[in-house]
Amino acid sequence: MTSSTPTEKQWKKLRTSLAAWYQSAKRDLPWRRTNDPYAIAVSELMLQQTQVVTVIPYYGRWLKAFPTWRALAEAPESAVIKAWEGLGYYRRARNLHALAKAVAEAGGELPRNEEGLRSLPGIGPYTAAAIGSIAFGLPLAVLDGNVMRVLTRLLALSDDISRPQTRAKLQELADAFLDRKNPSDHNQAVMELGATVCLPRNPMCLICPLSAGCAGRDHAEDFPVKARVATEKRKETVAILRHGNRFYCEEVPEGKPWHGLWRFPDFDPERMKRGETLATIRYGITKYAVTMEVVEAKWKGRSPVSMAVRYLTTEEMAEFAFAAPHRKLAKALSIKKAG
Ligand code: SF4
Q1: Looking at the 3D structure of the chain, how many domains does it have?
Q2: Which among 31, 92, 143, 235 is least surrounded, fewest beta carbons within 10 Å?
Q3: Is the same domain home to 39 and 124?
């Protein structure tokens, strides 16, 4: 069920109310104080699937470590992954690194048109619209989770947002809503409204600048509609192999989740003897709810030797980027040692 699409006159009214609200309510965020396309691209990649409060310290540290496209392009991948450690979705860090290499190779500047932006590695429709509008004022409407929530509520649109057809329809609506004279502020305003007022739970419709024209405000939490992906349970066993005060760790090879990060190995009954259970850690990854049992273990034969394995002390582990549940385990080992 959908209320009718706003006329241009109605969009204009909504746009004007939103713009006035944004000028008075926008948060003072570090990436709003710069015009540097590189810094804007960094913030956009970091903000995908991660909250503003989490991103702020990473953004500052990142720009100190890699202040330009060239500095990032020349950095080793291990340093890039380490600087991203804890932000999750590491593909974004690799994309940013690949993007920096492409930009540096092309002379150090981003193209100032949608086609050029989309031709670069790691830049999809959302990132092209965000960077294009914010850094260069291109009239491109962004469509992320916040924007989809605002639009589906505004129009009481109950189509499943996981369907490509719905995404296409929402992109058309976002395009119609866009303030083409000020796409940068407009895009940031819709995202800001979604992040601070039109919240997933308990949206603040009473103070919302779009309230008068919002078809879904009386049952806002019914939107957006998204088909649920069933969570699957998964068990795994991870081995702690000691050598004095050092622990066997390995780098995750290419083609596997967490590629480029470090972790403790899976327990392998062919090659390892199992000892006592030390801990159980639970975590979620994509559609899996994982129960990770941590066991003491010993090698049956010789310990493997390669560039991708190391025996690390808990202090040395701090120098490597670890996958989040394995970082938790590394911290637990260092606390146990200190205690
Ligand atoms: S009135 Fe409520 S539901 Fe509608 S856009 Fe504003 S906060 Fe969201």
Answers
A1: 2
A2: 235
A3: yes
pLDDT in tens, 178-190: 999 999 999 999 9
Q: Which of 160, 194, 222 is the last residue of a domain?
A: 222
Q: What CATH number does residue 283 fall under?
A: 3.90.79.10
Annotated catalytic residue: which of 8, 44, 109, 293? 44
Over residues 201-244, the pLDDT tens digits come to 999 999 999 999 999 999 999 999 998 888 999 999 999 999 99
Do 14 and 110 have their domain in common? yes
**Assigned domain for 3 exists:** no
Cα–ligand 1 centroid distance for 6 (angstroms): 15
44 assigned to active site: yes
Q: 169 C-alpha to center of ligand 1: Å?
A: 19
- Among 177, 200, 222, where does a domain finish? 222
42: left (phi over 0), alpha (psi -120 to 50) or beta: alpha
State whether 172 and 296 are in the same domain: no
CB neighbour class for 27 (10 Å; exposed up to 12, middle 13-18, buried from 19): exposed
Regarding whether 254 and 131 lie in a shared domain, the answer is: no
120/217 same-domain check: yes
Distance CA 307, CA 73 (A): 23
Ligand 1 atom showing the smallest separation from residue 214 Cα: 4
Q: How many Å apart are CA 206 and CA 203, to the nearest integer?
A: 9
Given pLDDT bands bounded at 50, 70 and 90, which one contains residue 304? confident
Best residue among 153, 190, 196, 204 to mutate for probing ligand 1's pocket (most ligand atoms within 8 Å of CB) is 153
Using DSSP, how many helices (H) and how many strands (E) does the chain show?
Answer: 13, 6
304: containing domain:
232-338
DSSP state of 206: G
- Write down the mean pLDDT value for the chain: 95
Whether the per-residue pLDDT at 163 is higher than 80: the answer is yes
Q: Establish whether the linkage from the previous residue to 139 is cis, with ω within 30° of 0.
A: no
Q: What is the pTM of this model?
A: 0.83
